[in-house]
Design goal:
By secondary structure, the chain is mainly alpha-helical. The protein has one domain. It contains seven helices and two strands. The protein has helices at about 15-30, 35-40, 45-70, 80-110, 110-115, 115-140, 150-170, and strands at about 5, 180. The chain has a two-stranded antiparallel ribbon with strand order 1-2. Helix 3 (about 45-70) runs antiparallel to helix 4 (about 80-110). The longest helix is centred in the middle third of the chain and has 29 residues, at about 80-110. It is elongated, with a radius of gyration of 19 Å.
């Protein structure tokens, strides 16, 4: 097994997680087709990162518009049930581009992300944000009045907090704080 080289702050994951996931991430680092090209190309990684950030801005901006309406802070003259169908196609477009570019960024450097604590926190919060989106969908599609219910307001506020935290953690992934570096074997 590869021995981790601790960075400034030791963030060594539990031995069980390392034993289970590290070999898979080492295999991906060496064997994923196109990974070395993205990792070593002059502009490939930068273009992907830029597309990821732009898609994130589109997605988060539209999610924020909808969530602020759910919370009861913005767009109060328009019913939420009217706003949602207008924003949803663009939200999904932003999400799909963001997801595809995010997977490609991971594809380029899987082993780099394995030791990044902020990456794992971000992934965990993305799962929670997905569950919250499902809850919002279940709440609001019951009736017209459900869009302005207390449950919808709470889920909208939770969405705002989750996505702000995801954005912050995504930004922190770029730094070496709470990072353990692993080598491909």
């Amino acid at each position: 097994m590869a021995s981790p080289q601790a960075s400034r702050l030791d963030a060594t994951p539990s031995p069980r997680l390392t034993e289970f996931f590290l070999p898979a991430f080492q295999w991906m680092e060496v064997n994923l087709p196109g990974g070395p090209y993205l990792r070593e190309s002059t502009f490939g990684f930068s273009i992907l990162l830029t597309a990821h950030v732009v898609a994130m801005c589109v997605f988060f901006g539209l999610i924020l518009m909808m969530d602020l309406r759910l919370v009861g802070v913005a767009n109060l003259r328009t019913r939420a049930s009217e706003i949602s169908p207008r924003l949803l196609p663009w939200q999904m477009f932003g999400f799909i581009v963001m997801a595809v570019t995010g997977v490609a960024l991971f594809w380029a450097q899987p082993l780099r992300y394995f030791g990044k604590t902020f990456f794992w926190w971000k992934m965990g919060l993305m799962v929670l944000a997905g569950i919250n989106a499902g809850i919002i969908h279940l709440i609001t599609h019951k009736s017209e009045a459900a869009w302005d219910s207390k449950a919808a307001k709470i889920a909208g506020a939770a969405s705002i907090v989750l996505w702000i935290a995801i954005l912050a953690l995504g930004r922190l992934v770029a730094y070496d704080w709470l990072t353990t570096e692993y080598l491909a074997e």
